[in-house]
Design brief:
The structure is a homodimer. Chain A is built from 18 helices and five strands. Chain A has helices at about 1-10, 25-85, 90-130, 140-155, 160-185, 205-220, 230, 240-270, 280-290, 290-325, 345-360, 365-395, 400-455, 465, 485-500, 510-525, 540-555, 580-590, and strands at about 475-480, 500-510, 530-535, 560-570, 605-610. Chain A folds into two domains: about 25-450, Amino acid/polyamine transporter I, CATH 1.20.1740.10; about 470-610, Rossmann fold (3-Layer(aba) Sandwich). A five-stranded parallel β-sheet of chain A has the order 3-2-1-4-5, with helices on both faces. Chain A is about 65% helix and about 5% strand. By secondary structure, chain A is mainly α. In chain A, helix 9 (about 280-290) packs antiparallel against helix 10. The interface between A and B is large, with 71 and 71 residues.
Chain lengths: ~600, ~600
């Protein structure tokens, strides 16, 4: 208990819930970490896809095309901000405008994405450490696990003070990245950097197109996280949507500058994709040598990635709680824990990301493949949702708004298809398989809750039975016994107080036990009769339940037989493995064996607590 | 349910238990498989330990020394048979004569050994298949798993007809092994078999001693299973102990002939240890080529190993049931399953062997190392137990009997020390660690059962409270409610029938739910008052339990407050994940929260069964 308090802190009262509001500067730090962190791997991705042959010729054109897409998506979000000032995430937008089916598809994609955000960010973070210290490679999974543990615990503590903490590394990363690009633009390329001479002329047009599309698809990972501001409008100072828009524009400018700048400098210095050293590490090494600035840049990269992982720990539990409130997942995901955090969602996210990191052995590039797919699905769907929204609302300039969002949706849809096409066998099929599975589970759970509600609903009538007071006739009572102890006595005593139609029952699975009980019975001089049920197949449950139905049918006006179960509670929980097996099985059977009549059976437990 | 019946068969009545009795021929087949199977790997073990350098010079001397040990152990068992005609296994002998401490040590060693019998036999079986079909190597773990599954299921079915089935492969193996040895003795060695020329002269005396001891220790694995007859005297036809003795002598002769013969022929043909081909496979290949006889011999080897694995499936559950009867392990291990087999023990053995095979990746040689250690511990202890027995009994010639068993015990003890010395770092430490852990778990469980017995014992008095009938005063009743449904109504109805001092309670963790309930309450016009408990920390359990203690203290003459818990049972079990979380937590708290007074609380459950 005390350890628990030290790690997670004291419980907080419900009234302590506060909704933090951010200034533009803080908001940028909070919402920017996710998309900013993707800068640290997007250029790597493009270079990986292009390969040595095409890297020099095409990395800038591909980056340019991606910037075009960033522009389209940003404009699209820029105007969505106005429509959902409460900060509807993609799920809310799609669910409200395009209905349950597409809403749940979006939710599935988002949940998978949050998980991948954690796995990708930590894996890329490990890669940044390995770039600086190659011998660290064998510890990269451990690095991810330790980081995950720290992030999970701090989120379970309900890290409310975090926004202030985030500003330093976020702005720090922006600064060092800016600095590196400026220095890179100014510095001349040393002659030792050889330009690979094989070029475009030797490749067929078809191959070039395939490679370009793949590079575009890989590079699109830089867009992940761009939706954060649109989903968080409600956290801005007033006037909310104006402040949010300004922040979005600033974010757009910084993102484009950093992404294009890094890719340009990488191209200028003829950097190529290396398995164990990131482009940022190669670049800062060339520009600054392995000195203070080099390590500062790596450190900032690791920080921004950890913060990106952390951001998923607020997004996932919040989305899960919305789904739980709408009864698409078990309602316990909407419970606030001791520290006012959605503990169940946090733990779930931590577990699934852990499994992902272990399965992929912190191989960031396999994970990023899966990542973009979900991101672009939710882009496409939420833009489409906005189209529907504007058509429904028909406000000022609605035609233009529809056109912009439709164009955004179309552009991201095409990108999505490119991503699927380039990555289908690389793992995209996993997502395409998981989304419908999630979707149908959500639906099944939701329908189940509805069925329960209908069946328990009092307005459906048939209540007479339940409201009529129980008659004066004493009920029938049966006490199943396996041996004589204080718990048994307490049960028999309560049974006698309830009725005078009591019978004690032992199922004969071991003649020695029966003989012992008979002896005890005689010596105690009980007024209650003892029945011995034979059990040729050594089952306790079946003979007892048969006997019970028999009793039920006798004197039906007395109602269903009440079962009084003596039990004892061992001093420590593990000791249950030594006792109570039969009692537990019997109780489960009493609960779950289908009843013939509608009447509810009363089951009484009298737990005798052992002192030791 | 039907699938269950097809796989495991229909339940059997208790009266169908039969104790099979064996003729000498059958008994040999039943008890011989374990020790016989070890012939198929013992020579490999000796050659492995000797290495290329010493194989030719020392394999026969080492085998000779081991035969000496077999003789000593057999004589020792030969006379134990007389003492325990009911077939006391090593555990019974040690427990009765040397007390609980050494008895439990023996039991631990035996349980570990049974598990290793399964793992070793299946792994060596896989190696025999690989010897014949080298490309099968990657499937050897799967081979073990499938065999394990078949053996487990057949034992859960209660394979009573098995003794007849066993005679064919057991005698078959003996026959083909005899045949191979005879042919091997007759055939001359082809000149192509090169004798490794490096020899003893180059090695230091110390090295030779170390190597010889290790070869002796490895080869001693041939003794595993030799105790089976002594433990099964009760299954012989009368006169039991005479028939058992005759069988033991026959077994001794066959064992020694086969072991010495195989080792001699292996030496004659200059066979060496090969990672992927057993000595038997090499030998039969040399003698018969890859023809019918070759494959017949491999097949028989696999069969005898499977039967040896199967034999552990009767030994382990039987020992477990004895330990459970004596309350050293949970009593459920003494329960006979549907098919009159000790199902729990069988499943436990299957699971642990499975884990062992997976951990060691069916590497038989690492497993055999662990194996002999346990075997020789139980040899040593049971012989020592016999010494004590004869001293206590002082029958005819007791001095001689003491001397023989003491010598047997000493010889096996020395062997045990050699085994530990040669294998300590190879894995013997695992066993040396496991045995005391098992031992202390057994003891802890036993003491726990004793404490329970004492505390529940009626003879210890303090029963007045339990026997005094409950007064005429109606008890206090509380009904915790979270929402209104038919189950709640049933609970309230039963509460009213019990007493007129009833209060319904809701813990306020969600104001909306409270408001809904209040509304329902007013519209139903209940006579029962509704209390709303505030819960600043969103816990349901604590405010409710506090309220309960408060109620308990009011009107103490009315006794402890009765808690009536409405609950509903979903149509399918998995749906519990959607409901009932709070009810389950609350009930657990009611059971396990320490009570201040000794009086037992009555807890009533009224499960409303949903139809869908």
């Amino acid at each position: 208990m005390n350890l628990n308090r030290i790690i997670f802190g004291n419980p907080l009262k419900t009234e302590n819930i506060i909704s933090e509001r951010y200034s533009k500067t803080k908001a940028l730090a909070v919402f920017f970490s996710d998309v900013l962190s993707s800068i640290s791997y997007a250029t790597d991705e493009i270079l990986l896809a292009l390969g040595l042959m095409f890297a020099h010729s095409f990395s800038m054109p591909v980056a340019g095309a991606i910037v075009g897409l960033i522009f389209v998506v940003s404009v699209s979000y820029w105007q969505s901000i106005e429509a959902y000032p409460d900060g509807g995430g993609a799920f809310t937008v799609v669910h409200e405008n395009l209905g349950e089916f597409l809403g749940l598809i979006t939710a599935s994609a988002l949940l998978i994405d949050y998980t991948l955000t954690v796995a990708v960010s930590l894996s890329v973070g490990a890669r940044a450490v390995v770039s600086a210290f190659p011998s660290f490679a064998e510890h990269s999974v451990s690095f991810c696990m330790v980081s995950l543990l720290i992030i999970t615990v701090s989120n379970l503590r309900g890290a409310k003070a975090s926004s202030r903490l985030l500003t330093v590394p976020t702005y720090g990363f922006i600064l060092v990245a800016f600095g590196m690009i400026i220095v890179g633009l100014g510095k001349s390329v040393p002659e030792s950097n050889v330009i690979p001479e094989c070029g475009v002329t030797e490749a067929s047009n078809l191959l070039i197109i395939v490679v370009l599309l793949r590079a575009f698809a890989y590079g699109c990972s830089v867009l992940t996280g761009i939706e954060a501001i649109a989903g968080g409008v409600s956290s801005f100072h007033k006037p909310q949507y104006k402040n949010a828009r300004v922040t979005l524009v600033v974010m757009f400018c910084i993102l484009v500058f950093l992404f294009l700048g890094l890719t340009f400098v990488a191209d200028k210095f003829h950097l190529v994709f290396l398995e164990n050293e990131s482009v940022i590490s190669q670049m800062s090494h060339q520009l600054f040598g392995r000195g203070f600035f080099y390590y500062l840049i790596q450190l900032m990269t690791v920080f921004i990635l950890l913060i990106a992982a952390n951001s998923a720990f607020s997004g996932f539990p919040r989305l899960a709680s919305i789904l739980a409130e709408k009864k698409y997942i078990p309602t316990s995901f909407a419970n606030l824990g001791d520290r006012l955090a959605y503990s169940n969602g946090i733990v779930m996210l931590a577990l699934v990301s852990m499994v992902l990191i272990l399965i992929f052995e912190s191989d960031s590039f396999s994970l990023i493949t899966l990542y973009s797919l979900g991101v672009f699905s939710s882009f496409t769907l939420s833009q489409a949702g906005m189209v529907k929204y504007w058509i429904r609302m028909r406000g000022k300039n609605w035609h233009i708004k529809v056109a912009l969002n439709a164009f955004g949706s179309l552009a991201t849809l095409v990108t999505l298809l490119v991503i699927i096409q380039s990555n289908f066998l690389n793992g995209a099929w996993i997502i395409l398989l998981l989304v419908p599975i999630f979707f149908s589970v959500f639906l099944k759970i939701n329908r189940r809750y509805q069925v329960t509600n209908v069946e328990l609903d009092l307005k459906r009538g048939g209540l007479g039975k339940f409201l009529k007071p129980m008659g004066e006739t004493k009920p029938k009572v049966v006490v199943p016994i396996s041996r004589m102890h204080k718990g048994t006595l307490a049960a028999l005593r309560f049974a006698s107080s309830l009725s005078d139609d009591v019978v004690a029952v032992i199922v004969n699975v071991d003649q020695r036990e029966v003989d012992k009980l008979k002896l005890a019975w005689r010596s105690m001089n009980f007024a209650i009769p003892l029945m011995i049920l034979s059990s040729p197949y050594r089952s306790v449950v079946n003979p007892f339940l048969d006997f019970l139905s028999e009793l039920d049918e006798r004197d039906p006006e007395k109602g269903k037989t009440i079962v009084i179960m003596p039990s004892f509670v061992p001093g420590q929980f593990w000791q249950n493995i030594l006792h109570n097996q039969t009692a537990t099985i019997l109780k489960t059977a009493l609960f779950y064996r289908k009843q013939t009549s509608e009447e509810t059976r009363v089951i009484v437990e009298i737990p005798y607590q052992m002192k030791k």
